Each structure stands twice: as structure tokens, then as C-alpha cells.
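Q: What structure does this chain adopt?
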Amino acid sequence: MTEVFCPENILEEIKADQIPEKAMAKIAEGYRFSQACAATVDNHLELSYSFAHDETYQYYTFRILPEEGEEIPSITRICPPAVFYENEMRELFGANITLIALDLQDKMYRIEEVQPFAPEKKEGE
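A:
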């Protein structure tokens, strides 16, 4: 029986253009892509990409705080399961994720409101 232990969960804030390199590094270290999510906090977009190590139970999350309109390169060619997460982050939150392997062109959900959870635009935009 494998001993279960829970080391600390690590959160590292990175720049948007670092996510493909960081994802590849975690996979090379034996981690697997676990999840990605978006949130609007204080009217600012936050994107999180998490990786889990099945033997050590270590959980590692990269946090991106993109500027409005900043391009975020997709990790779908590195981690194919990220395709639905990234399409959702773009469609619902307005994240400018580029080069998604299977780009659903904002047609993943049947919603009337465009980017319903995106940060509010500042006046004059």
C-alpha cells in the first residue's frame, strides 16, 4: 500500500508567455495537467493552470494575471486535455488565448451574453 502524504500546494505567479515552457517543465518532472480555471477578481482576470504529481501528491499551480487583451499562448499542444478549459476561459471570461489546438470559436456554450464573466470594461473602451 502506498503511503499517502500531502506536501504543500505551490502557487507561482508567472507571465502569460511563460505558460507553455512551465507546462513542459512540469510534465518532464512527472506531473500531469490537472485543471485550469479563470476568475474575475477585483475586476481583473486571473488564470490558473494546475499540475499534479500522482506519486508524491504534490500540486503545483501557475497563476497568470494578464493585462487586458494580452495574448496567452495555449498549452493544448503540450497538454491536449486543456482544450476545453482554454476554450471556456476565452468564451466565458474573455481571456485572449491564442493557438488553441481545437478552437471552438466561442461556440462551446449556447449563451446569449458575450463573455459573461469577463472583467468590466473601463469607461471609454
